[in-house]
């Protein structure tokens, strides 16, 4: 019995040692915030044919950092809110398109301060608009409130794709509580001039648009007003001019979203490109 016990002990020790030698570990390093910053690139050029301009390769400081296809208004390296780590100071960014990933569509040098930033590419010849992101996001009370948070960024041009459109008001749209008076109720969220960003504004969620709700609300709609108080109008595919609305949104309690408005107005359906895109950032 002693021999058997000894053999079992040796085998147990061997297995233990084998397991210890084959443990998988992921090496991480702390970010040195005195020399490094975090940046996510948001591609918001005012072009009509969005698919033709999809970025397929991204470089920072001549180093490849991403090779993914993504729609206009996407975030690298994927369609979620992720950051690249860059040195504080001057940085070179290059974006390429096409399946061969060799057609340069954007190149510039921009200054990156310390902290976390969203870099909005709004002009092919200008450095990105830098909007600082908070270190921690609002999430609200787990039981006592039912809010999400929205930041608005205005990068909309007039029909020429060069002249800024001007101040834009972002509002939520709900079915009116008194249908005989108005078709919709409009909820103020934020107002921004061109190249401006609001803070994170609380927005109350409701179940079925009526009752207080602490989960995810679906079927949300948002609209835009100009500085004169008129609803923003765009052309339908049949070139009928009507009120612009962004519909079918789902938003979750405690989540922070960036609503970035980009593109340009047009003289008909084929020449406009108005996009209200969103990024969930936490």
Rg, Å, rounded: 25 Å
Number of alpha- plus pi-helical segments = 1
Distance between the termini: 60 Å
Beta-strand fraction estimate: over 45%
Flag low-confidence runs: 1-21
CATH-level-2 architecture of the largest domain = Sandwich
On the 0 to 100 scale, the average pLDDT is 84
Structure, described:
- With 282 residues, this protein is mostly beta strands.
- It folds into two domains: 36-133, Sandwich (Immunoglobulin-like), CATH 2.60.40; 147-280, Immunoglobulin-like (Sandwich), CATH 2.60.40.
- The protein contains one helix and 21 strands.
- The relative contact order is 0.15.
- Mean pLDDT is 84; it is low at 1-21.
Notable characteristics:
single chain; 282 residues; mainly beta; Immunoglobulin-like; 2 domains; five-stranded mixed beta sheet; 1 helix; 7% helix; disordered N terminus
Task: Record the SSE blueprint.
Elements: H1 2-21, E1 36-43, E2 55-60, E3 63-66, E4 84-87, E5 89-97, E6 103-112, E7 116-121, E8 129-133, E9 147-157, E10 168-175, E11 184-192, E12 196-197, E13 201-204, E14 206-207, E15 211-212, E16 216-226, E17 233-235, E18 241-243, E19 246-252, E20 256-264, E21 275-280
Parallel strand pairs: 1-7, 9-20
Antiparallel strand pairs: 1-4, 2-3, 2-5, 5-6, 7-8, 9-12, 9-13, 10-11, 10-16, 14-15, 16-19, 17-18, 20-21
């Amino acid at each position: 019995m002693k021999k058997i016990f000894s053999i079992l002990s040796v085998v147990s020790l061997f297995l233990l040692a084998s397991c210890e030698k084959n443990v998988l570990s992921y090496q991480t390093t702390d970010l040195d915030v005195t020399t490094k910053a975090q940046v996510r690139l948001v591609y918001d050029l005012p072009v009509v044919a969005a698919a033709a301009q999809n970025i397929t390769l991204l470089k920072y400081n001549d180093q490849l950092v991403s090779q993914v296809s993504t729609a206009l208004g996407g975030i690298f390296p994927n369609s979620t809110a992720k950051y690249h780590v860059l040195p504080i100071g001057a940085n070179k960014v290059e974006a390429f398109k096409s399946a061969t990933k060799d057609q340069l569509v954007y190149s510039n040098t921009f200054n990156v301060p310390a902290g976390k930033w969203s870099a909005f590419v709004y002009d092919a010849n200008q450095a990105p608009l830098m909007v600082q992101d908070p270190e921690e996001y609002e999430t609200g009370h787990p039981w006592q409130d039912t809010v999400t948070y929205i930041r608005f960024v205005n990068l909309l041009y007039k029909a020429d794709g060069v002249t800024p459109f001007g101040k834009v008001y972002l509002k939520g749209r709900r079915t009116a509580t008194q249908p005989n008076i108005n078709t919709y109720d409009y909820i103020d969220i934020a107002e921004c001039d061109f190249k401006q960003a609001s803070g994170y504004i609380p927005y109350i969620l409701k179940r079925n648009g009526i009752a207080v709700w602490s989960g995810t609300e679906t079927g949300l709609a948002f609209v835009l007003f100009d500085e004169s108080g008129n609803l923003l109008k765009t052309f339908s595919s049949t070139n009928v001019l009507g009120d612009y609305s962004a519909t079918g949104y789902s938003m979750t309690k405690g989540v922070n979203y960036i609503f970035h408005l980009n593109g340009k107005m047009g003289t008909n359906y084929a020449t406009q490109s108005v996009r209200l895109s969103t990024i969930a950032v936490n």
